[in-house]
Amino acid sequence: MLRDGRLRVVTYNVHKCVGLDRRTRPARIAAVLREMDADVIALQEVVNVETPASREAHQARFIADELGYEFRIGENRKHKGGAYGNVVLTRLPVAHCQNYDITWRWQERRGALRVDVKVGGERVVHVFNIHLGTAYIERRHQGRRLVSDAVLRDPQLSGPRVVLGDFNEWTHGLASRLLSEELCSADLSRHLRTRRTYPGPLPLVHLDHIYYDDRALKLERLTLHRSRLALVASDHLPLAADFRLATSD
User: Fold this and answer.
1) pTM
2) Is the peptide bond before 199 cis (omega within 30 degrees of 0)?
3) Stretch 155-161: mean pLDDT
4) Domain span at residue 114?
């Protein structure tokens, strides 16, 4: 369960676990995440190949095993014969998992992975792990799809929502505007010296975002993790948010 009503979430595009040294090292990603000690971790660009030849080929399972977490995969397409897409890792009990198709026309298949984690009793937090497309019009479609009754406004949602991931949006485009109208955006400028998150060694643009229900979640801290290991493990850096849950009535 949670520690003192606090919830730490992380978003991290792991770039298939390929570091800046061009080596594929899932163990290095696991070591970075161990440094962060998060309750819920949203990973993008994860490759999961079932093979007896290497534990590391199934990156989600390997990293989860290294950390002692559960994992859920949102498969969007095949890569090297394995499931490729978003992954959520958590040390909290999982109540529900669903992967929403947010693909636009002929573009690369994209998904929004929802994982509901139990934070005490019957209370859940709905975590949405997002990786939007690289095309401007594509992201406009995906923003509208996300802020719809089928996804974020689903009347069946009973707890606070956290939406996080790689939005591929370095300007305040429609997807960002729609999400900012629906949820509160974690403002980097209030917590960090920079508003830029990518690429890791020399950030130039803001691609990694976190949105949340501010009526039920209070953002206490936002951290861009810049350890020596993190600076080489992926082209992105992990972004962490520390929340305090409002007391239930």
Assistant:
1) 0.94
2) yes
3) 96
4) 6-245
Please give the Cα distance from 19 to 100 (Å, whole number): 29
**Residue 1 maps to a domain:** no
Give the total number of structural domains in the chain: 1
Q: What order of strands is seen across the sheet that includes strand 70-79?
A: 70-79, 82-90, 40-48, 6-13, 239-245, 217-224
Rounded distance between C-alpha atoms, residue 33 and residue 216, angstroms: 26
In terms of Cα–Cα distance, which of 229, 241, 246, 161 is closest to 14? 229
Q: Which of 59, 77, 15 has the alpha carbon at shortest distance from 230? A: 15
- The alpha carbon torsion through 234, 113, 188, 202 (nearest 10 deg) reads 20
pLDDT digits (tens, 9 = 90+) for 175-232: 989 999 999 999 776 766 666 666 666 655 678 999 999 999 999 999 999 999 999 9
Burial class (CB in 10 A: 0-12, 13-18, 19+), 167: buried
